[in-house]
Design goal:
It is a single chain. The protein has one domain. It is mainly α. It is 69% helix and 0% strand.
Length: 167
């Protein structure tokens, strides 16, 4: 079942950033570093996969939201690029938000009473939920969240780096 969760996250990134992924071999880092063995719960049912997917979406959204707080100079330093293409980065971010919203909604069907299940109507709701998300519902989930955060920050950086290097 873990492959199913990984596949859904991969599809999210591929769908939202298809041009960048296809045009930059260096971006393979994003796709190859998606090992999620640190998820604390067994992925033995669709409900457990959906819970893990919602948590992953929220962690990625949290990293994406944090990237939006950087100004042009901060982005240039963080992405290690000589020049930042803000319009290209904005388009990639918008695509990522739409993809995250779709994935979160799909994983939120029939999840009442489960972890990480607040309903969202739009990207603004998802942004608000991501801003407050900690993943801290148990010590095991808190450990997962702290480890996952760095991975998602790296993935966001790679997507934005590609956007900045491509016209």
């Amino acid at each position: 079942m873990q492959w199913l969760r990984m596949a859904s996250i991969l599809l999210l990134w591929v769908g939202a950033c298809r041009p960048g992924i296809a045009s930059d071999a260096g971006n393979a880092l994003v796709l190859t570093n998606l090992e999620r063995s640190g998820w604390p719960d067994a992925l033995t049912s669709q409900a457990s996969v959906d819970t893990a997917s919602r948590a992953e979406v929220l962690m990625f959204a949290k990293a994406l939201l944090a990237s939006e707080a950087l100004d042009e100079q901060g982005l240039r330093r963080r992405l290690e690029v000589p020049q930042v293409r803000l319009e290209s980065i904005r388009r990639v971010r918008d695509g990522l938000w739409e993809g995250l919203l779709g994935t979160y909604r799909n994983a939120s069907q029939n999840c009442d009473g489960q972890a990480f299940c607040p309903r969202v109507r739009n990207v603004a709701d998802l942004r608000q939920l991501a801003a407050a998300f900690t993943g801290d519902i148990s010590p095991a989930h808190a450990l997962w969240a702290s480890r996952s955060q760095g991975l998602h920050e790296q993935a966001v950086n790679e997507q934005l780096r590609v956007a900045s290097l491509q016209p």
